[in-house]
Amino acid sequence: MSVKAKRLINYHAEAMLDFLQTCVGTEYKIFPEVSLARICEQVNNLEYELRRFLFSSSSVDALIIDSDYNPCLVVEFQSFYHDSAKAKERDRKKAALLKLAGVPLIYSRIDNVKLLHLYSEDEAIIHNLFTGERREDAQA
Predict the structure, then answer these.
(1) Residue 118 — left, alpha, or beta (φ > 0 → left; ψ -120 to 50 → alpha)?
(2) For the chain, what are the domain ranges?
């Protein structure tokens, strides 16, 4: 029996993390694949399903923190895997917990190979990865 180390993230996530780092600069740090329980602390009663989900193995794709290591923003990398009903329910629970904790959440999705969509409940930005059009809208 043997064990070997494996790559922590896929190449799509690596590209997204590199893009995010150029947006936030050196003032912030980005951590990939952080468990929700490391970001959100239960301080009073929580609905059973949310409490169960909080302490499951669920994680966020990218957590952006400030120089004091406080969570500033969560970015979820969306793909067609997130289009199923089960995935949407997991995303809903994740969003609910982050909202209760006061940590903003945005989603990113690359469509048709060159357009990056960054969106939240309130706003959407489309960034052209080839031309750089609207890149300034994605900066912190």
Answers:
(1) beta
(2) 11-138
pTM for the whole thing? 0.79
Task: Out of 1.10.8, 1.10.10, 3.90.1580, 3.40.1350, select the CATH number for domain 11-138.
Answer: 3.40.1350
Q: What is the DSSP string of 38-67?
A: HH----S---HHHHHHHTSS-EEEEEEE-T
Name the strand (E) or helix (H) holding 94. Answer: helix 85-101
**pLDDT digit string, tens, across residues 81-138:** 777 889 899 999 999 999 999 999 988 877 655 556 666 777 666 555 545 555 555 5
39 near 60, Cβ under 8 Å? yes
